[in-house]
Amino acid sequence: MKLLVAVKRVAALDEDFEIRADGRDVHADFLLRDLNEWDDYSLEEAMKIKEAGAAPVEVVVVCVAAEEADESLRKCLAKGADRAIRVWDEAIEGSDSIAVARLLAAVARREKPDMLFAGVQSSDHAFASTGIATAAFLDWPHAAVLTHLAYTAGGKSAVFRRELEGGVLHEMQIECPAVLTIQLGINTPRYASLRSIKQAAAKPIEVLSLEDLNVAPGHVGERGSLSRVRRMYVPDKGRAEMIEGSVEEQAARLAHIIRELAGSAS
Amino acid sequence: MTRDPTAVTRVLFEDFAPAAIAAFYVIAFAAVTVFCFGVYVEVRKYRRGSAADMDGRLLARLQAMIGTVLSHRTIAHRDRAAGAAHRLIFYGFVLLFLGTATITLDYDILGPLFGVHFWQGAFYLWFSLVLDVAGVLLTGGLLYMMYRRGWLKPPKLDYARPDRQPGDADYDRSGYRREDWAFLWTLLVIVATGYLLEAARLVWLEATPDVWAYRWWSPAGAALAEGLRAAGMSAASGGVLRTGLWWFHGLLALLFIALIPFTKVKHILTAAGSLMLRDPLAAQRLPRVPEQQQRAGAQYITDFSWKQLLSLDACTKCGRCHEVCPARAVGAPLSPRDVILSLREFANRTLESATLPAQAELDVHGKGPGQVTMETLWSCRTCMACVEVCPVAIEHVPVIVQMRRQLVEAGQMDPQLKKTLQTIHKTGNSFGEGKRKRAAWTKALPFAVKDARKEPVDVLWFVGDYASFDPRNQKVTQGLAWLLQEAGVDFGILYEGESNAGNDVRRVGEEGLYEVLATSNIESLSAASFKTIVTTDPHSYNTIRNEYPDFGGRYEIEHYTTLLLRLLQEGRLRIAHPLGLRVTFHDPCHLGRFNKGYDAPREILRLLGCELIEMGRCRANSFCCGAGGGRIWMPDPVGLDRPAHNRMREAAAIPGLQVYVVSCPKDLTMFEDALKATGNEGRFVVRELIELVREARGQRQADRQ
User: Fold this and answer.
1) Closest residue of B to A30, CA-based?
2) Smallest CA–CA separation between B342 and chain A, in Å?
3) Across the interface, which of A16, A32, A195 has its CB nearest the CB of B512?
4) Closest alpha carbon within chain A to B513
5) Which one in B25, B171, B516, B535 has a CA-CA gap of 20 to 30 Å to B358?
């Protein structure tokens, strides 16, 4: 049996970043790249099922990204994934989460996994839509924000829990194949030592093109997306002031500020 | 009266029936055979270890070992009484052993082969005297050791294990205690029966002038013989006693020899071997993982090198490492001694059999008998106190780090440590700050700090993580920049070209990450043009000095203390106001014990006009702050004491102490916390030496208080 885990290489902001000249993203020089935190948990969940050993399981990670993402895929391979697939074509640049989901669904049709895991969301863009949109393209059942999963390799269905408001737990059963999005904290992701990452370099990363997946260039990238970034910017800072000094001084300063603001409002 | 000098000797097997002599030789050969078999089993055990990375300087190593053994330097180190007593036992035993060997040479080799006999006349008499004295030395040493074990009872000899609970299969160490006593008593009985035997022979042969006239050449035996005669013993009963004692003494001695490889007595061989194989940089320069090596570290007992397996057998349970270990001192489940003894017991159980057990039975990690738990391994600060104090050159730190390497591979570590390692991999520093922020501390300076990547400098300052990012330490870092600027030193830093030096990453056991960090720093350093490197961080200092050469980075590096001392001595920095403070100095492990940088900071304190009061544990015996070996990235267990608190209490006992001086960024962090936690805030302060230099120059930092 097979588990497909969709992962993303996300960006984090470096100190004193700059916005790109076109105003639609942060300049790449100021981004630190790493595997999306949620994906550590979904990969771990897949590895747990594999290692439980109920049936032979192949864990395949898939990522829609350019070549730099190989580093993150190798980290997944180091943690024990059997294979890695990277989907890329110049035309994919600018895809929104729905276009990415279209590609992931194409990979799923090709790989025919028993289950597809994705993180609840990515830490950089946080749409929380890729996993669920993939299920929609596949017309598979799906569930989001899992905090517990009981699934035995080879099973026809899985039982999982989600947290609802007020501490209420939602226990559900889902038929396979299904798409599940995994929440942080569902497990304790393992550590990929640098040695294991280095050794994982020997494992091949399969690169798939749009032709391989039978996806037309017009269905990805900005043309294939239903949303596009207009601009990215840092809003003007609001006013904040640290009040220091003795309690009396602080109270006096606070009173002064309140009077000032009240005055300006009236 | 002149006698034939050849008659002045001891007639061996005098009056023995040929069958008795034959029986003795059979038994003696049997004993030697058992001994040889035991040695074979042990050698086979060591050979089941992996290859050892050895240099070929065998002769130099042999010389150094003999020097150490003869001087008893390492045994007398910080335990003079035990050293003196052991010296008596050692020299007594060696002389008696050489004596017996001399008789064998004369009687069994030179005599039968060449008809040559030298064990007679004047030589025999001096021989008798020397051996009698040797017996007294041995007895004195043994009696002191019995007094020590029986009455002084130092806690380090009680074998209490911090890493096991009463009831655990291998908690009970009473077997060791019985063996200790059996060892002492056996030797004592052999010596005592030797004297009695000598006395009985004298009584028996009182009518033989060639024996009786020279009896005082064996003063102890002669005195005993006089006593026996005074008690009414006749020559005939002396003869009977002599025969009985002869067999008892002889058989006991042969039993002792036969048992050497099977008991703690084997340390006479293994300790010598361990001392000979000593690596002078065992903790300072950890072993690389060879490219073709299957595992990152030690998972199975056979992953240890034969040299390490041999050194496990050298341990005599003296407990010195147990006593100095900062983890043990605060109640953590680690005693370096018990790690060594556990592994030894494990090796004996698994590697002494004729066939090697299945691999699963060789796993040294776990909670079973002889296994080492991850809690034990993660308690280690790699402070090197154990390695430094071990009299037989056991190298605990590499053993522990090699086992940690497997824990890292398996991800068995504290979550915070895991996170920190990931952070270091991602950002190159343990603070998770962007690379660009590394030199942010320079912005507070009114002068620009040169970018050593862009222009040549004399001194390249490797700043290190704590000194770069920690706000409290940044003030010290800025202070040193001021001092270098004022002294006219041409210096620069690597800005974002610098990464965590990797010293502690390596000691955690994340060797792959260490390689990435070391390689990246070496790349930056190689691209820069400079004469020497300076750093305030003893951890960076150690790894760049001792470990980077293994990765192709050979640099001249010094700790800032030696540079500042030179600047002060050369008059490039002047002291305006002698401080007149009563201070104590904490030796950082990586500066002191690791790299012997004891004197420069003390000399600077003297030049600053400080009165230095040493703590009991200073210099090589300095007590770790608890942050080493990556422990700074792991939370300390709740409810346990902490090494830094232990140390603060030691300092607080100094009457009138004003300043606790440190010279390591991590020390500053650890001890300022400890000062507050132990309620000593307001009584004295913790200061970096750099701050005191600035103060003595009249540059009290406005933001210091």
Assistant:
1) B434
2) 27
3) A195
4) A194
5) B171
pLDDT reported for residue B3: 65
**Is residue B290 over pLDDT 60?**
yes
Mean pLDDT computed over B333-350: 97
> CB distance A195–B409 less than 8 Å?
yes
Query: Does one domain contain both B187 and B227?
Result: yes
Task: Note the pLDDT of residue B434.
Answer: 86
Domain count, chain B: 3
> Please, are residues B481 and B442 in contact by the beta-carbon 8 Å criterion?
yes
CB contact under 8 A, B427 and A193: no
In this structure, the answer to whether residues B422 and B408 fall within a common structural domain is no
CB B371 within 8 A of CB B344: no
User: Closest to A15 (Cβ–Cβ): which among B421, B434, B515?
Assistant: B434
**Contact B295/B406 with Cβ under 8 angstroms?**
yes
- Amino acid A265: pLDDT: 53
Q: Encode pLDDT of B368-408 as tens digits.
A: 999 999 999 999 999 999 999 999 999 999 999 999 999 99
Chain B residue at shortest CA distance from A197: B512
- pLDDT tens per residue across span A181-200: 999 999 999 999 999 999 99
Q: In terms of domains, do B403 and B433 share one?
A: no
Which range, of A226-230, B104-108, B275-279, averages the lowest pLDDT? A226-230
Chain B residues whose CB is inside 8 A of the A190 CB are 411
pLDDT (tens digit, 9 = 90+) per residue, B40-73?
999 999 999 999 987 778 999 999 999 999 999 9
Q: Is residue B251 part of a domain?
A: yes
Q: Does this complex have an ipTM over 0.95?
A: no
> Among partner residues B427, B435, B510, which is closest to A193 by beta-carbon distance?
B510
| Contact (CB<8Å) A195/B415 | no
Mark which of B262, B285, B304 sits at the end of a domain. Answer: B262
Q: Nearest CA to CA, how far is A60 from chain B (Å)?
A: 21
What are the distances in angstroms from CA B502 to CA A69, B409, B539?
26, 17, 8
Considering only the beta carbons, identify the residue of A14, A32, A198 that sits closest to B512. Answer: A198
Which residue range forms the structural domain that includes residue B526?
Answer: 418-696
Domain boundary among B217, B242, B262: B262
Question: Inter-chain contact B421–A198, Cβ cutoff 8 Å?
Answer: no
Domains in chain A, ordered, with CATH? 2-219 (3.40.50.620)
Measure in Å the smallest separation between the Cα of A188 and chain B Cα atoms.
9
Is A195's CB within 8 Å of B289's CB? yes
Pairwise pLDDT comparison (B649 vs A257), residue with the higher score: B649
One domain, residues B300 and B425: no
Instruction: Report the pLDDT averaged over residues B469-496.
Output: 97
A90 lies within 8 A of chain B by CB = no
Q: In this structure, what DSSP letter does residue B335 have?
A: -
pLDDT number for residue B436: 86
Token pair of B430 as six digits: 């343990």
Q: Closest chain B residue to A78 measured between Cα atoms?
A: B409
Q: Which of B299, B409, B424 to mutate to test the interface with A (most CBs of A within 10 A)?
A: B409
User: What is the mean predicted confidence (pLDDT) over B599-626?
Assistant: 97
A169-175: strand order across its sheet? A169-175, A157-163, A142-150, A178-182, A115-119, A2-6, A58-64, A83-87, A205-208
Exposure b/e, B3-17, CB count within 10 A at least 16 = b: eeeeebbbeeeeeee
Residues B640 and B645: their CA atoms lie apart, in Å, by 10
Section B192-210 average pLDDT? 96
Type of residue found at B614: E
